[in-house]
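Before relying on records like the one below, remember that each one covers exactly one chain. Contacts with other chains, cofactors or solvent are not represented anywhere in the record.
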Amino acid sequence: MRIRGLQLYYGTFHALKNVSMDVPGRAVTALIGPSGCGKSTLLRTLNRMNDMIPGVRIEGKVEIGGVDIYDPKVHVELLRKQVGMVFQQPTPFPKSVYDNVAFGPRIHGVRKKAELDEIVEKSLRAAALWDEVKDHLHRSAYGLSGGQQQRLCIARALAVQPSILLMDEPTSALDPISTLKIEELIRELKRSYTIVIVTHNMQQAARISDRTAFFLHGELVEYADTGTLFSRPRDPRTEDYITGRFG
């Protein structure tokens, strides 16, 4: 994924300022920075979720596989199939565990039960949830714990076979044990997916990401290998943030 000269405005407010960065494939890229710095806004530009906000204006390019996703010829529905998203709060549908995972494939035309069964099992296994729910597939997803619901949302995203997975603070509403399970899952998933994660937790970024980008006031201040950024930051603003002087 290549981002070049990305500018985003909410009306007259300049939320992203000339952001350029390359996101490596099959790796975890963390976006960090204080609240309101633009990291979640950037995440939502990567599957055009900001399109749904009135008054948004976007300039620059976001390329996936060499294609500018803001080209008018790009079908947004197909883009969001390629670029899945998991939100801060677990958001299961008011359906069974099975129907949550099967929802996307059905939307995209999968009808055969055997094929849906295979997709559901494969997706739940990929989200490290199958063994916990395989005997309760037709019970309401609301009966799962918060951590299980979040893993179900990850399975739901994986069911449509994306190549990129966006995660907006996926563990901020979870307890420490559930957080650990999600972090272990992210490490496994990066073998097959490109992952971009927004996190306020710098320790989490250090634990699970390969590269980290630090944002401040809508600007990309520094972007480097995670170990380098946390141990030898080039910009004093980065050092001030990761050492707790502000944020």
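The radius of gyration is 18 Å.
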